[in-house]
Amino acid sequence: MKNIYNYEVKEKFLQNQKSRKSYETVFRKTYRFEFDKGKDLYNFSFEELETVLYGFKHNSFSTIETYKGHISSYLDWCCNQNFITKNDLNQIQRGNFSKYLSNRIKYFTEIELKNWQKNQPHNIDVMVSQLLFIGVETLELQNLRPKDFDEEKKQLQLIKYPKSGSIKVLNIDEKTVGIIKKTIEESEYGLTDFLLQEKINYIGKVKPLKKNFIRDSGAINYAYILGMMKGGISKKERFLVARKFPEIAPSYLIELLTLDNIRYTYNEEKLSTDIPYQLELESLAIDATAQIEVTETEKEQVVKARIGQSTFKKALLNIEKKCRLCDVSDERFLVASHIKPWSQSNHQERLDVNNGLLLCPNHDALFDKGYVSFDELGKIIISNSLNEEERLLLGISKTTEIALNEKQKEYMEWHYREYFEKNKNSN
Ligand SMILES: [Zn+2]
Q: In the CATH scheme, what is the code of domain 110-265?
């Protein structure tokens, strides 16, 4: 096998790997490093292993984590074979991973946000960015009315779901008070009932900044203020940030609130990123060959994902704002799931918004694999193969119900009949 360094040894290791292909891809990527140094990965020092992680030049956290995990399993195996006595990669903590990402994001500090705001011609953009930065949620922004703003008390009343009747009171600082006041006074957007509802297009399109970027920057800023720089990241501090920024999914928050990200944003520590340009080009070339190896099913998944991300998901997001089975509302994690599976649908059904359910990745997996379905009243039907404990862990119970319109019911009937019932035995 070409392009795998020290192939005889690695082949022995690969023989026992279930996801062999994925390991091979990683070994093809480490080849050039091993070739350069004239030795196998297991003879690499920690610093050399880090060079490999930097050298992947990837900007996806999970990819880097997977690559590292694969190399680490290999090193564990090498320990078992007595080639080495310890696996150096074990010293990398999960939270210190982001430094290996390329094109890593430099989040905004409060001063940088202020400078950006200074150059905005419309106060509405200034206000939206400011409120996102301090943790106001999208739905709360959309429902904001001038009368919810109390200049004297320096408070905002935030309403997420008008029908629920629950109100959150947020204390705001002098600067935010000034910004809101100015926005209300600005005649163009002046005294309409809702400050933002008609200007909904602005949300998420604060140019050139993205909504999530501002929110993430705000979370990092808050963590920084809480003193995470000095004391490290404790559970309690993460909890405080999570409470202030409820729209950020907990798992993503863990990735976001790393000392690396905070240091990088606040320039406390320069990071080494001097990987030769040539390596990057090589890496791109290898990526291109790896992509050719996708199977037909994978291809369908890719297409499905692409459609899910674009038209279909957007259409669904206009109707639903969070997972139908739980409170996950971060758009980045929501999946536009087809009730009647994409592969079974005709072109019209694939794009019919009634054939969609917005779900978080966990619940999408359950639904997509036919472990749960819904009856004509929208009551959940759960596969017998899921025991009580699993149901609890997955956040589903017999009493779960969702609202379905007539068209959705038709698709759901199909899902139940063709998918749930048929998978019953294999479930
Ligand atoms: Zn969910």
A: 1.10.443.10
Asked whether 168 and 116 are in contact (CB, 8 A), the reply is no
Residues 6+ apart with CB under 8 A from 100: 50, 53, 54, 56, 58, 64, 68
282 C-alpha to ligand 1 centroid (Å): 40
Mean of per-residue pLDDT scores for the chain: 78
Cα of 395 from ligand 1 centre, angstroms: 8
What are the phi and psi torsion angles at 29 (to 5°)? -75, -30
CA distance 268 to 377: 57
Task: Note the pLDDT of residue 1.
Answer: 56
pTM of the shown model: 0.44
Q: How far is CA 155 from CA 93, 128, 231, in A?
A: 40, 16, 31
Alpha-carbon gap, residue 91 to 222, rounded angstroms: 28
Residue ranges of domains in the chain: 7-100, 110-265, 296-423
Q: Return the minimum-mean-pLDDT range out of 40-44, 198-202, 237-241.
A: 198-202
Task: Specify the pLDDT at position 411.
Answer: 93
3-state secondary structure of 382: strand
Ligand 1 centroid to 47 CA: how many Å? 40
Q: How far is the CA of 123 from the centre of ligand 1 (A)?
A: 36
The mean pLDDT value for 229-257 works out to 76
Tokens encoding 59: 């900007």
pLDDT tens, residue by residue, 67-98? 898 999 999 999 999 999 999 998 887 666 77
Whether residue 284 has pLDDT greater than 70? no
